[in-house]
Amino acid sequence: MSYENWKNKAQGFQTVDVRHIQGSFFEGLRKRAEALEVGEGLHIIQTFEPHPLYAVMEGLGYEHHTEQRSEAEFHVWFCRVEKKEGDSSAPFKPLALLNYPMIDEKLGQIAVDFWETTWQSEKRVLPYETRLLLSLTNAVGAGRMRQAARELVKAYIHGVESAALDDVFELLAWNQGIGFFSSEIGPSALFQAYKLIKNGEKQGKSREDVCSALREKFGEKNPEMQVLN
Question: Which residue(s) pair with 12 in the sheet?
């Protein structure tokens, strides 16, 4: 289905203007989206193109159509074309970007554009999985274990072999030092996710089962991993 098939319904969608909402609007929006039936939808108005919402809404069975009315006014219509419970294949959407407009609307647009350029641009040469591993190691170096754990889970779910993760952790021990590795990396959610992968494979579990366990234990519901309250 495409926008042409449901555009006549779009004028009747409930409008949600989030341009000046103080605090996170995401949870309320998701609950509204989950409650709608096929053929119903939402009309979102935001000061920047809300890329983080696209994948989330798609996972719930929505299609979208976006129009830019001015430099800081975007209108997005989401129509539910099928009922899904949420896409679990690609965890950890860039929802933290939704925090930036609370500080400054222009900063929100800059953050979204920066993410789009870094992770979505066709100009990138390194494979996505390689960039995830680089992001993982950079996060550890900066002391951001939450981000590192999220990147590890995404990397494994996107096909990175556990043997490659072995290499990453050997290099972390080498570059960060045994003391730092023992006191900071070992007890972290990052290393817990790695152990889940290694133990699951040792027990003969399928990759699908290991990925499912990763999503369950290290998904957004885990307070150590979530970026929105």
Answer: none
Beta bridge partners of 68: 74
Per-residue pLDDT tens digits for 104-145:
878 888 888 898 888 888 899 999 999 999 999 999 999 999
pLDDT tens for each residue of 181-214: 999 999 999 999 999 999 999 999 999 999 999 9
pTM reported for the whole predicted model: 0.68
Quick one: tokens of 194? Answer: 């790695």
Please, what is the angle between helix 189-202 and helix 162-176, to 10°? 140
Alpha-carbon separation of residue 222 from 40, 92, 149, 201 (angstroms): 31, 11, 12, 23
Pairing state of beta strands 62-70 and 14-17?
Answer: unpaired
